[in-house]
């Protein structure tokens, strides 16, 4: 029976690997070398389960006992919990779910493959009888040789069926774990205990049904355990079907939960976007007032300076040089109130002026060639949102780099299309949000940040447009390139 113990060890080794990969996707690792952690996990998990299984065999606790599964699963769960705390950061809501979903999935799969082994063994006997008759009839083998090899052939057939069934079981289990981790919420999502209980409820239900199926599958008759397959052949199809449906139920529960999480996050982002747009509208209105006041102030100051200059020339000849120097400085001060960027709209002038001032303070080179389209069909509020969010993101990225850093803004029109391009020096890598097809924010407060690009994309979609993001190498640095396309 050494072959069966070897098979059992290999199965535990495969389970250990699947458990590590599964836990790795749900919890945050705290090890530095993955290969060392994986080796330790494999050794401890496999050895622990083999020792406990040997103890149960020594105590003559049958695998087919109704409650034997609990004697095997509970130490397995405890061992997994210890390994989780050793190699991963503690997060009890996530740990409990990972543990319950793993244990429940493997437990219920017993009834998905045991009918398969029964069917294969049932077909082996008539096949073996036919093979013996055919071999003896055609003289391929003598009766003495057949008797000598019969034990070895039967043992090989038994191992072949067991290996095949275990491979099927492990394959289905691996697919189940892959679906769970695919549909589970991101690692940065803070799973609450209430949400964890919602997720493990199907797992507890599956474990309860597993016990029920074991009670149904075995019946006591003259102190001998008789499989229900002999009495009700329909169970050969029903038990695997129920097992697979239970696995599907757990996967569906995780998928539904992810939908709820995505809805909550989308609702929170929508509120942030609406608040941001309201703030932009208020800022634009304030900018328009400021721009009007500054135009009037510049006009009045120039008039006063011209009057003072004329008065100095006509009445104060002796102090002319000193006063002219003073008036020249006043003219330069007045000219500073003029915006360097003439974009064709006062609001975009102010936005570029503010960004340019901030870039100058941080020694960032800012080049702008932006022109607001004449007779533009685009709402100035939407253009303001695009410029404000895009340029502020570029400014923040450049501030993280040692000087000199640079950023650029360009715009051009092609037919009915209007393009806005923003580039800036960039260090690091982009992590993408698969659902939104946009880069994720690198800030720790992800709930209140990371909506800038989403805001820009929303404005582009309003005009049947889109945005494109790419990282391109340039000299010794990377460049973050954002292109916004608008249609009219």
UniProtKB/TrEMBL annotation:
Q: Which InterPro entries match?
A: HATPase_C_sf (IPR036890), NatK-like_C (IPR032834)
Q: Which domain of life is it from?
A: Bacteria
Asked if the keyword ATP-binding belongs to this entry, the reply reads no
Q: Does the keyword field hold Thylakoid?
A: no
List GO molecular-function terms, semicolon-separated.
identical protein binding; kinase activity
Membrane-spanning parts: 6-23, 35-54, 66-84, 96-121, 156-177, 197-217, 237-257
Location of the Sensor histidine kinase NatK-like C-terminal domain: 380-484
| Pfam families given in the database record | HATPase_c_5
Q: What are the protein's UniProt keywords?
A: Kinase, Membrane, Transferase, Transmembrane, Transmembrane helix
Q: Which PANTHER family match?
A: TWO-COMPONENT SENSOR HISTIDINE KINASE
The protein depicted here goes by the name: Sensor histidine kinase
Record the organism.
Selenomonas ruminantium
Phylogenetic lineage? Bacteria, Bacillati, Bacillota, Negativicutes, Selenomonadales
């Amino acid at each position: 029976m050494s072959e069966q113990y070897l098979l059992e060890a290999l199965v535990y080794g495969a389970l250990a690997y699947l458990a590590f990969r599964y836990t790795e996707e749900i919890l945050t690792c705290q090890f530095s070398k993955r290969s060392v952690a994986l080796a330790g996990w494999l050794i401890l998990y496999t050895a622990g389960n083999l020792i406990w299984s040997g103890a149960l065999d020594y105590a003559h606790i049958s695998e087919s006992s109704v409650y034997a599964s609990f004697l095997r699963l509970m130490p397995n769960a405890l061992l997994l919990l210890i390994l989780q705390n050793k190699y991963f950061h503690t997060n009890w809501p996530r740990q409990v779910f990972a543990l319950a979903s793993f244990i429940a999935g493997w437990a219920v799969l017993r009834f998905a493959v045991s009918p398969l082994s029964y069917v294969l063994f049932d077909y082996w006997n008539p096949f073996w009888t036919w093979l013996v008759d055919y071999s003896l009839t055609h003289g391929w083998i003598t009766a003495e040789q057949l008797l000598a090899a019969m034990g070895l052939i039967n043992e090989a057939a038994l191992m072949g069926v067991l290996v095949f069934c275990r491979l099927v079981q492990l394959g289905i289990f691996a697919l189940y774990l892959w679906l769970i981790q695919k549909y589970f919420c991101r690692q940065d999502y803070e799973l609450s205990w209430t949400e964890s209980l919602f997720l493990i409820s199907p797992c507890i239900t599956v474990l309860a049904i597993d016990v029920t199926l074991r009670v149904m599958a075995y019946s006591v008759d003259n102190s001998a355990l008789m499989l229900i397959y002999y009495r009700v052949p329909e169970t050969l199809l029903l038990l695997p079907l129920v097992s697979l449906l239970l696995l599907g139920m757990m996967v569906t529960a995780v998928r539904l939960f992810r939908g709820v999480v995505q809805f909550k996050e989308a609702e929170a982002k929508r509120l942030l976007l609406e608040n941001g747009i309201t703030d932009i509208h208020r800022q634009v209105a304030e900018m328009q007032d400021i721009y009007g006041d500054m135009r009037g102030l510049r006009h009045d100051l120039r008039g006063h300076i011209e009057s003072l200059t004329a008065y100095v020339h006509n009445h104060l000849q002796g102090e002319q040089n000193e006063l002219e120097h003073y008036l020249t400085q006043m003219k330069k001060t007045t000219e500073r109130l003029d915006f360097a960027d003439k974009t064709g709209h006062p609001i975009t002038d102010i936005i570029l002026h503010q960004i340019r001032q901030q870039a100058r303070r941080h020694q960032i080179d800012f080049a702008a060639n932006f022109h607001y389209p004449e007779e533009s069909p685009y709402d100035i509020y939407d253009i303001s949102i695009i410029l404000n969010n895009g340029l502020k993101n570029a400014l923040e990225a450049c501030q993280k780099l040692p000087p000199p850093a640079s950023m650029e803004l360009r715009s051009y029109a092609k037919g009915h299309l209007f393009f806005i391009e923003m580039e800036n020096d960039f260090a690091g890598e982009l992590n993408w949000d698969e659902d939104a097809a946009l880069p994720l924010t690198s800030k720790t407060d992800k709930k209140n940040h990371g909506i800038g690009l989403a805001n820009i994309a929303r404005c582009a979609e309003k005009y049947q447009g889109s945005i494109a993001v790419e990282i391109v190498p340039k000299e010794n640095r990377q460049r973050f390139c954002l292109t916004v396309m608008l249609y009219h």
